[in-house]
Amino acid sequence: MGDMVLEMVKLSKDLLLKQNGDLQEYIREQDNRVDLLNREISLYISESIDSENEDLPKKAYRMILFASDLESVADVVDKNILELARKKHSLKVDFSSQGWSEINEIHENVVKIVSLSLSCFQLADKELASKVVFHKRQLRKLEKKFREAHIERLAGGEKDSIKTSSIHLDLLSDYRRIVGLTANHAYYYLKEGDKYNILPRREDVR
Description:
This protein is an all-alpha fold.
């Protein structure tokens, strides 16, 4: 499920490049698959909870939350970014060169953070959790910087920036939201350390 969501995030930038019906349909299909997996995972975990194990319900709850957050990320790509791409192509507008450079940089950082967050969850690694939170905060600063730069271009009368303003600003918000959703679980791990190790160790499954 995580790999599917990561792929959707990676492809989200391609949606903005040019009209691509096949890619749009693929994104919709992937979102539907993620929705289905989220339901199946939540149901399986709920039915597997051992009430006699005090730690398991809490761990299971957090696994369900992480799956839910991943499903929300898929929704952001499918329902938000895809619609922004459609709007851009329908209006036949393009980002300014500086605006597109900023979007590329934001997207590159978002992909890195999502990938790091998935590794953190799989390995239950506290150091990776710290990195996820650090990079999330850095991205918020970068998003603020780019938002201000965009407004400066508007004030300067940059035509491409004016035409794509709402799309550009909404896109920055959507990418920030994706990072916020995928980083949620890192805070739990930083708070409780090894108690958050919800995946079986290799020696436990031999």
